Amino acid sequence: MKNFVKSISRSASVLSLLAMVLALAPVSYNAKPRHSINVVVDGLHSPRGLSMGAGNTLYAAQAGDAENLGSIIEIRNSMSNNATYRTVASNLLRVGGDGEFLGVSGISVLSTGRNQNIYAIMGISPGEGGDPLFGSLLRFGFKDSFDNIANVGEFGIAYTTAHPDPMEPNPDSNPYGVLAIPGHVYVADAGGNLLDEVFPDGSIQAMAYFPDEIIRDAIPTCVAQGPDGALYVGTLALVDSIVLGPSAKVWRIDPATVNTTDPTLTPKTLWAQGLYPVNGCTFGPDGNFYASQLFTNDFENDPRGDVVMIPFSSPGTHNFLTNGALGYAGGIAAAPNGDIFVADGTSYTPNGKIVRISH
C-alpha cells in the first residue's frame, strides 16, 4: 500500500543482498487446493481491520473513499449466506486519493459479560493527517459515541524524534493494528516500527522496536496473541518483498520480558520468515497462525492477495488458502468454527468486500 512505501535510500551490492537472502532458513510453501470462498458483504469502501465479537458477529472498519467518510460496521449472520450489516460508527475522518484512503484501520472487539467495546485506531500520525484525531486509539460503545483514549501517533512521532534510526532519521508514525484482550490493549505502529501498549489512563508504553529489513523498514502491521500467551507481530517488509521476494516476518514477544526502559532491548524471537507482506494476522481456534498477504506476485500489475496458514508447531510451513484469489488482502479474523474472514480489495478498488474462507 502506498502509504507504507518509502523511498529506498540505502545502497548494497547485489551479491551481498543475495548472500543475506540465501542465508535464511528454508521455507516450505504449499499451495493447497482452493478452499471455499464466499462473499459475505460487498460494496464496501476501503475495508481494513476485522474482529469477531460475541455470537459470531463480525465487525469491519472502512477507511472510506472519495465520496464516503470512514465507518465501522457490524455484520450479523456472518456464517450464513444471508449476512446483513448495520453501521455502528460513522463520519470518521479520512484522507487520501488515487484509490487509497487512510483513516480508521485496525479494530479489535473486547467482550466482557454483556459489555462489548470496539477499539479502533485512526491510522497515520496527526501531523500527516491534518487533524489531531488521526493517530488516536478510540473506544466505541453506543452508536457514534467514543472515548479518545490516547494519541498513539503523537507518541510514535515523539519516540522516533528522541530515538532516530541512523538509517531512517526522519520521525514517523503510522499506528495500524490493534489487539484488545482482557487487561491489555496493544497497537502495532507501522511507521514507528513499534509495538505499544496503551493503558486505560491514556499512558503509552513502547514494548518492542523492530529492526530494519535489508533494504527498508520492517513495518509491523498486526499483533495477535498465540496459544502460549505470547504476542506475535507480523511485518509488511514491503520494499524488500517487492525487490527481493517474500521478506516479511513474524516476531514472537513474551510480554513478561519487555524492557520498559529501552524497547530495542526487549527480547524478540524470529518465529516465521520468508512471507509475502503481512497486512493482518490472527490465531484460529485450531491454534494455528493466519495472516492476510497484501500480494503474492506482481505488486504493481497483478496483485494477487492470499491468506497463509502457518501451523503453530511448524512455523517453516506456509499453506496458502486461496491460490492468489484475493486482491490487496487486509484485515483478518477467525470464527469459532475455524472459518477465516478477510477484507478483500482493501485498497485501489471501488468495491471492497469481506469474504469467508471455509476449510
Structure report:
This protein has 359 residues and is mainly beta. The chain has a single domain (24-358), classed as TolB, C-terminal domain (Neuraminidase, 6 Propeller), CATH 2.120.10. It is 9% helix and 44% strand. The protein contains 4 helices and 28 strands. The chain has helices at residues 14-22, 126-129, 152-162, 238-244, and strands at 28-31, 36-44, 47-52, 58-62, 70-76, 84-92, 95-97, 100-102, 107-112, 115-121, 136-140, 146-151, 175-181, 184-189, 194-198, 204-209, 220-225, 231-235, 248-253, 269-275, 278-283, 289-293, 304-310, 317-320, 326-327, 332-334, 340-344, 352-358. The strands form 7 sheets. Strands 1, 21, 22, 23, 24 and 25 form a 6-stranded mixed β-sheet that branches. The protein has a 4-stranded antiparallel β-sheet with strand order 2-28-27-26, with no helix packed on it. A 4-stranded antiparallel β-sheet has the order 3-4-5-6, with no helix packed on it. The radius of gyration is 19 Å and the shape is globular. The model is unreliable at 1-25 (pLDDT under 50).
